[in-house]
Amino acid sequence: MNTRADRTAASPSRPFGFETEFDDMGGVRPGPVFRPTKRAYLPAEVEALTAQARLEGREAALAEIESMRVMAMSEIAQSVAASTPALAALAQAHREQAAGLALAAARVVAGAALERFPAGPLQEALEALGAEIDAAPRLVVRTRGLDEVGQAQLQAVAVDAGFSGLVSFRDDPGMAPAAFQLEWADGRADFDPAEAASRIEETVVAALAAEAGHAESLAQPDHRRP
Length: 226
Fold this sequence. Notes:
Blueprint: H1 4-10, E1 21-22, E2 28-29, H2 43-116, H3 120-128, H4 130-133, E3 138-143, H5 148-160, E4 166-171, E5 180-184, E6 187-191, H6 193-212
Parallel strand pairs: 3-4
Antiparallel strand pairs: 1-2, 3-5, 5-6
């Protein structure tokens, strides 16, 4: 014969709780059904729980890796954005230095060429202006230190370019070496090595300024020059 104590010992224990609720009329509301914690599992259940835990762990690890990747990409983007102005300034400085070296080398080479062939620019100008001066009755050539041999050579160049008029040479000691001035009835042309070098430098500076994103040139050209 089972006693009440035996039945109590055989039934699962239930911890004391305060889940009993009462309604407005004093009646007891039905509470949640007490379910004891399961402490024994079948092998299949253990395998299923293990697989679920592995899946959840893998998903959590992948999510953490993705979060770290996003953070790393964000930090890289911020670093690149922060270094872009410095890199752009460095590249611009290198371009300006390279342009300065190129201009300096060009001045040396051009100076040596003009010192050896001072009449070279004048000869090129006569050949280029052949179509404009061919109908002019007279051509006045102002330059410095041109001897008779040089005058004869330039007169032959003018004839070959189509000019059949009179070539008049005027020596101007105040002009720079290799500089010249041509005058004819319908026009005029002149050349000064220093001004040509200055124009080239202004063009290079303007190109560098435009490449750097400036709205205006760093050097303002003199528009009064022909």
